[in-house]
Write a structure and sequence with these properties.
By secondary structure, the chain is mainly alpha-helical. Helix content is 28%, strand content 5%. Helix 1 crosses helix 2.
Length: 202
């Protein structure tokens, strides 16, 4: 019998393919979040050093509610500083005592009074978009498990909310259904059998 030859593979269009666009978007957001993470670490270091230099000012700011997590959208978790900014940004007042570091944002404007104690918020790191890798002849058990798990437990969207400045704030990707796991045989060293206590006889 003569076998029917397989059709030639269709060339992949990297400009219009939806999976490629989704991956590029995810990579771009991950790169942005990586830069924000570096800025957040520097911000936490500056706040820590400022609090150690002047504990009374830190306690006073905490009582006034100035030590708080910055509220914002999907962008930077804090107005990150320029990478080439000199770390020795402490300014001396009359008398020679170092009190505050007036950080500058990306626009070069001085830090507002009361914002020097703002802390970066936690980032919701983006995940790999659900892609059926087998259609691209990409063989890998881990990728197949990832795709199957994404189909069985899709990420629930979180609606946007309006911030204090009137702008819409990204609500994140939301939660996922809890992974139940697989059944395992009884292990007397790890598993405990819960027994109900009998009521004492009266």
């Amino acid at each position: 019998e003569n076998a029917i030859p397989q059709p030639p593979p269709i060339p992949l269009d990297f400009e219009d393919n939806s999976d490629v666009i989704a991956l590029r978007s995810a990579i771009a957001i991950l790169q942005m979040q990586a830069r924000n993470a570096g800025s957040d670490v520097r911000r936490l270091r500056d706040v820590k050093e400022r609090a150690l230099r002047d504990p009374e000012a830190f306690l006073g700011a905490r009582e006034r509610g100035e030590v708080r997590v910055r509220d914002g959208g999907f962008g930077p978790s804090y107005e990150s500083e320029d990478e080439d900014e000199d770390e020795d940004s402490e300014r001396e007042v009359k008398g020679g005592d170092n009190v505050k570091m007036d950080g500058e944002g990306r626009d070069g404007s001085a830090e507002k009074k009361g914002d020097e104690w703002l802390l970066p918020r936690m980032q919701n790191v983006v995940r790999c978009p659900p892609i059926n890798w087998s259609q691209y002849a990409v063989v890998g058990e881990s990728l197949d498990k990832l795709h199957k798990d994404q189909l069985e437990r899709p990420v629930e969207g979180t609606p946007q909310r309006i911030g204090a400045d009137g702008n819409l704030i990204y609500g994140g990707e939301g939660g996922r259904r809890e992974h139940v796991g697989v059944y395992a045989p009884y292990d007397p060293m790890r598993d405990k059998v819960e027994t109900k206590k009998k009521n004492p006889k009266r």
